[in-house]
Specification:
Structural class: alpha+beta
Distance between the termini: 54 Å
Number of strands: 8
Strand order of the largest sheet: 1-2
Helix content: 40-55%
Strand content: 5-15%
Radius of gyration: 19 Å
Order of helices and strands: HEEEHEHHHEEHEEHH
């Protein structure tokens, strides 16, 4: 490892060399991925379930230490989570539609809240951590958000979502709306008030 330069480590980190974990309970196409596109399953599976792609191996094994060095993390970064939501939301929705107990709409809302947290570090100041423009655009255009109406839910893109800021309208028509706790995120992505 000492003979590798930072350039070599960077090239390894970008190469699709990490085996993806594939089982009956973990979605993924199998094959290989770049280290930045997978996480270790040990901790992340409990939080993100079928949303993420996972790698084989333990983070404490010799192979796991190498995988860490080239970019595999135990939990996704805000950007990694945003990318996973934008690209892998359909696998989550398929499980939710199928009545899976592994993941529910409430679980998905928690995942979206985890994405929202670093974007809005102060609720009073509405201070925003910027996502790269292309990633923000992907999140905004993909039908990866959900609207709720009682216990019902449906997938929606930000531009097609309504933020319930008009109490009289909501009481009269009872529309599908953005979850209350995600209004800042939905507005950030372009939802209407």
């Amino acid at each position: 490892a000492d003979e590798l330069s930072e350039e070599h480590w960077g090239r390894l980190g970008a190469a699709q060399i990490v085996p993806r974990r594939e089982t009956e309970t973990v979605f993924g196409s199998g094959g290989h991925a770049a280290p930045r596109d997978v996480v270790f399953a040990a901790t992340a599976w409990k939080v993100y379930n079928v949303l993420l792609d996972y790698c084989e191996g333990s983070p404490t094994s010799p192979a796991g230490k190498f995988l860490r060095r080239i970019g595999v993390e135990e939990m996704p970064s805000a950007e990694g989570l945003a990318a996973a939501i934008a690209s892998n939301h359909e696998r989550v929705f398929a499980r939710m539609r199928g009545g899976s107990t592994l993941i529910t709409p409430k679980d998905y809302i928690k995942m979206l809240k985890r994405l929202s947290a670093p974007l809005f570090s102060s609720r009073l100041l509405k201070k925003q951590h910027e996502l790269p423009a292309e990633l923000r655009k992907s999140l905004a255009s993909a039908p990866c958000l959900i609207e709720v109406k009682g216990e019902d839910w449906r997938p929606v893109a930000a531009a097609d979502c309504v933020i319930d800021d008009h109490e009289t309208f909501a009481q009269k028509f009872s529309p599908f709306v953005a979850p209350t706790e995600l209004k800042d995120l939905y507005h950030f992505l372009g939802a209407r008030s």
